[in-house]
């Protein structure tokens, strides 16, 4: 786990990104939305990493990424994808 602490501005930026990719307004990001997110934020992402990454971020394994899960990923390592 990263010890990086996000500033309020960075959290607001993460929220903006999350809300943009939460296309259906459900408050979560599903796999399809996550694929779109990675296509925009990290176009060189390998297809094999998408589902694996989704599974790692979806800590409670409910099939979607909520904002807390997203924020933890954003804080730690979204650029690795």
Please characterize this protein's 3D structure.
α1 crosses α4. A two-stranded antiparallel sheet has the order 1-2. The protein has helices at 8-21, 31-41, 47-57, 67-76, and strands at 28-29, 65-66. It contains four helices and two strands; from the N terminus they run αβααβα. The model has no long low-confidence stretch (mean pLDDT 87). By secondary structure, the protein is mainly α.
What is the succession of H and E elements?
HEHHEH
The residue-averaged pLDDT reads 87
End-to-end C-alpha gap: 16 Å
- Give the strand order of the largest sheet, numbering strands 1, 2, ... along the chain: 1-2
Radius of gyration: 12 Å
Structural class: mainly alpha
Gross morphology: globular
Describe this protein with a few key phrases.
4 helices; 81 residues; two-stranded antiparallel ribbon; mainly alpha
Task: Summarize this entry quickly.
This protein has 81 residues and is mainly alpha-helical. The chain is built from 4 helices and 2 strands.
SSE map:
Layout: H1 8-21, E1 28-29, H2 31-41, H3 47-57, E2 65-66, H4 67-76
Antiparallel strand pairs: 1-2
Helix pairs in contact: 1-4
